[in-house]
Amino acid sequence: MDLQTIWFILIAVLFIGYFFLEGFDFGVGILMPFVSKDEIDRRVTLNTIGPFWDANEVWIITAGGAMFAAFPHWYATMFSGFYLPLFLILLALIVRAVGFEFRSKLKDKWWRATADQFVFWGSVLPAFLWGVALTNIVMGLPIGEDMNFTGTLAILLNPYALLGGVVSLLMFTLHGALFLSLRTTGNYKQRIEKIARMMWAPVGIVLLLFALLGYRHTVLFEEFGIIPGTLPMITILSFVAVFAFMQFNKYGWAFGATGATIVFGTIVAFQGLFPVVMPSSLSDEYHLTVYNASSSDLTLTIMSFVALIFVPIILAYQAWSYWVFSQRVTREAIPRD
Description:
Radius of gyration: 20 Å
Largest sheet: 2 strands, antiparallel
Distance between the termini: 59 Å
CATH architecture: Up-down Bundle
Shape: globular
CATH topology: Formate dehydrogenase/DMSO reductase fold
Number of strands: 2
Helix content: over 70%
Strand content: under 5%
Number of helices: 12
CATH superfamily: Formate dehydrogenase/DMSO reductase domain
Strand order of the largest sheet: 1-2
């Protein structure tokens, strides 16, 4: 296994970690207006992800930095072609951070309502736009011989890509609902479990439609023929398992199953593309691959030593933080100001 392949796998792992962890953050932010009956409920909702959301965002920052250093042509083509969507994602994440950090600075109702809108829309937009972006990549983009994106915004907003955005939005919302069921108690927990059970079928229908259309609109399933391969089948079975676990009130296992669906779905995308990182719809000769888009072997070697030192430290710290804040959030723990 060469350095290019190793770094492709590492970047894939970073995106997988981001979608798994930030996915439930997005879901919690999206659900907050619908599951919170009063100010105490809203504080409970925010406190469930309060210790985690900013650390979860580190995964995408690291992924972007690794992509820039290891595969500069991949980084340049993607960030130029997706300039507006990625700008909107960045803006939404900034606005959401403002909502989290400054909500409690003023006690005025209008300010807290505004901060809640920041959190909501700052969760909806990234959850939707990441799905649009990833779907466009697996469909192929108009990339020329000079590795530049030659299309327009209208090309990115095609129906199948928009469906991909709906899939990611709904999947993250269900993931967030199950996370809330593990972090809350009492009537709040019962309400969120009911919402999760109601969401499963609609999300499943959209996922099935997206997967079936994927055989026509992407190149991910060409090697499988009509029958899905192992990874797509595992993705399907993990989503089916969500329903089974919820029927037996095993919401912790159900959360793990939605996480598995996100993880294996992302693996399907990266594995189906390899060794291509940005497929061109104009010609196979214009594909960006891990070889023509990468940095020098010396750069990748130095990066590998740095990653070996710091990645375990980051993982250990984040695991420790989840263990420290593992207790459920209760209404009684919220100060009445």
